[in-house]
Design brief:
Rossmann fold; two-stranded antiparallel sheet; 13 strands; 22% strand; Fungal lipase-like domain-containing protein; AB_hydrolase_fold
Length: 227
């Protein structure tokens, strides 16, 4: 059983992670998160926000183009760049889970930062590349979380119990959620449809907010996670 303090509104989580993007603009506007921010990480193209409520927010990329052209290609750890490649895997965390190497390295930057600051998240929310990190950190920290526009992060494992704490919310028209093709998501996956735009992949966080609203109104998605 999950503690009620670890249960969160899905629609609110979507609004928070969208607001997290604004905090990293050169001249950040005022956001609904301002009074809640405890600390921010902005290092080596890895961004995260830790709230006073011990909620970790991980923004990623707000477009398919940015994701495909830049996200993993600009991540440079120890002089090595990581690409969206099905052959690059690594092990980290309990039970030697096999992770996509680029996603794992991204998540580890956040994990190391939290360890250094002695932050312990009670809930994790991420989008896009941040959704990849969310799946990994939910597993390693054994806390619930929501991954919006979640790519696939692991391969060749039977998902252990903590994986069930992660909800991957994906749009059917978002191709990022199918990558890398030989990997799988970690946790429960809910694939839904929102209002479609002609010849466009709807990867942006605001489009995921619309999808959450549509799915909840249709009775296909609950209001909270864990349910």
């Amino acid at each position: 059983m999950f503690s009620v303090t670890h249960r969160y509104e899905i629609a609110r989580a979507a609004k928070m992670v969208e607001a997290a993007y604004l905090l990293f603009k050169r001249r950040p506007p005022r956001t609904s998160l301002d009074a809640s921010v405890k600390d921010k990480l902005n290092k080596n193209h890895v961004q995260a926000v830790f709230l006073k409520q011990n909620i970790l927010l991980i923004p990623g990329s707000n477009s398919v183009a940015d994701y495909m052209k830049f996200n993993l290609r600009v991540l440079n750890f120890g002089g090595k760049k990581y690409r969206l490649n099905d052959e690059l895997t690594d092990k980290w965390g309990a039970h030697d889970v096999i992770w996509h190497q680029g996603f794992m390295r991204h998540a580890k930057v956040i994990a190391d930062w939290m360890q250094q600051k002695r932050y312990r998240p009670k809930y994790i929310v991420g989008h896009s590349l941040g959704a990849a990190a969310t799946q990994i950190l939910v597993r390693t920290h054994n806390v619930p979380g929501i991954a919006f526009a979640a790519p696939r992060v692991t391969r060749g494992v039977v998902q252990p119990a903590p994986a069930s704490k992660c909800l991957c919310l994906n749009r059917n028209d978002d191709k990022v959620c199918d990558l890398p093709s030989s990997f799988q998501h970690l946790g429960e996956v809910h694939a839904g449809e929102g209002q479609r735009r002609f010849l466009r992949f709807d990867h942006q966080m605001d489009r995921y907010q619309e999808m959450v609203t549509a799915q909840q109104l249709a009775g296909h998605l609950g209001t909270h996670w864990p349910a």
